[in-house]
Structures are given as C-alpha cells and as structure tokens.
Write a structure and sequence with these properties.
193 residues; alpha+beta; nine-stranded antiparallel β-sheet; 9 strands; 25% strand; disordered N terminus; disordered C terminus
Length: 193
C-alpha cells in the first residue's frame, strides 16, 4: 500500500515537472525492471546470423540452411570439398551444436558449389530484396538432369505465405519459382514468420 502511495506521489511530481513525456519514460523504466531479463533480451536468430554462427563453428561454404521450429539446420562443406558438417543453430540463442562431421567427402561432388560467386547468405539477401520477408530455407540445387545449378530460397512474408525464389549463383539475380500458400518442406512450428 505504501509503495502505491509513493509511486502515485512520484508520478504526480513527474507530471508536474516534465509532463506526459517524462511520465511515459518513468513508466517504461518501471516496466523494464519488472520484465525478466531473458524475455527483454530474447531475439530471434536470423538466417544470416545462423549462417555466421555455423561458419564460425565449422569454416567452409554453406550448402543449405533450413529452419525447423526453433532450430536452424545448416550443411557446411569445407573449402577443399573434402569435409562436411551439419551444425544446428538454436534459433532463440544462437548456440551451435556440431552434428555429423565427415571428412571423407568426394570434392568433385561440390565443385560447382565451391566455385559459385554467390554464397548462401548472399542468395538469401537477394531473395529478400526481391520479396520482403524472412529467409526460411536456402538450398544449393545442382540437378543431374543438365539444368544449371542455382540457389533455391524460401522467403516467408509477414502474411505467412512462402515465396520461392531461384537465385543465380553467378549474378545473384532472384526470380520467382512460384507462390504458395505457406506450405513448405520446412516445419513452421517456430511461429516467427
């Protein structure tokens, strides 16, 4: 009861001395003290940040990135093409867990990926520039049917719909593959799209 009396008296003084702006600032400061630090500081790890975290943990070239609920699954190929790892990045904290490290890869299988001028991160940025939203999936697509390799990028718009793009690995130009209703191969449990 005494606390309420003191808060009311302090608010009256603030209103008289500084007006509504000062009162709003004082209220925000009081609210900030009552919100748990973890909630106030929690941020969502973007695709770009997940790529950076994965590459810091396992240097190389990102072959694919996929958001599955609260985890980013990343496939990284070493720059010589002989190593492969599948780090997982926590989408809330950015913590990296290294999964399935293999050093017996055939480097010829990754020749086109390693020669690409446009990285997975750059492909994601190009897709978002063409269609605003959040990158949800980036995948190197090198079909064996003679089609030129490209980056396949899924962007989730604010409306929850997924936009699929093909990004040229040489020029970085993003073109629409198709519009969909939000259904995709990746899990949308994260609710952050």
């Amino acid at each position: 009861m005494k606390r309420n009396l003191y808060v009311s008296a302090a608010a009256s003084v603030v209103l008289m001395a500084g007006g509504p702006v000062a009162a709003a600032t004082a209220a925000s400061a009081d609210t900030a003290r009552t919100v748990p630090a973890a909630t106030a500081a929690r941020g969502d790890v973007t695709a770009e940040a997940a790529i950076a975290a994965a590459l810091k943990n396992y240097p190389g070239v990102v072959e694919s990135l996929d958001r599955d609920g609260n985890v980013w699954h990343v496939d990284v190929i070493t720059k010589d093409g002989k190593g492969h790892a599948e780090p997982e990045v926590d989408a809330a904290t950015g913590a990296v867990t290294r999964q399935n490290v293999d050093t017996g890869e055939d480097s010829s299988e990754h020749k086109e990926l390693l020669a690409a001028k446009v990285t997975a991160g750059q492909a994601g940025k190009a897709a978002v520039a063409a269609h605003p939203g959040q990158v949800w999936t980036v995948e190197w697509d090198a079909d064996d049917n003679g089609k030129a390799p490209y980056w396949h990028v899924e962007v989730r718009g604010a409306d929850g719909k997924t936009w699929d793009a093909s990004v040229d690995p040489t020029t970085g130009k993003a073109t629409a593959q198709s519009d969909s209703d939000g259904d995709s191969d990746s899990d949308s449990d994260g609710g952050n799209g």
